[in-house]
Amino acid sequence: MKLIILLFLPISWLLGLNECSSLKTGVFKMVTTVEDSSPITTIIERTGDFQYERIKELGLEIKYKVEWIDECTYKLVWVKTIRDGNSIGYPTNQIITNTITKVTHDYYMISSISNLSKENFEGRVEIVKR
Fold first, then answer.
1. Do residues 120 and 111 touch, judged by C-beta distance below 8 A?
2. 32, 39, 61, 62: most buried, per Cβ within 10 A?
3. Run of H or E including 110
């Protein structure tokens, strides 16, 4: 009987991806470590059609438009650099495509690629508030 019930569940549920829709709004935190440097913490606030990213260590705050492609994939399109304290000069033509690959109660895993790079970034994003 249990096997029959499992056959009717969507594959996304079996993979743990049924929670992607719960990540469309909220506050998240990602810590990135680059070789021979201090960790960089990005605070992400996603509300409706927009995402704000704040990186205190770099004095950077960016606003993106969020375009959901499917349940677990979305694009970030640059809208505005709110603050650029270290004069980094963020590339305004960059589009980042993110795929949520795993969702748990405390964090989700993400695979990201940019139209400006061939490298794929894999990262863990902590869920601060849904």
1. yes
2. 62
3. strand 107-114
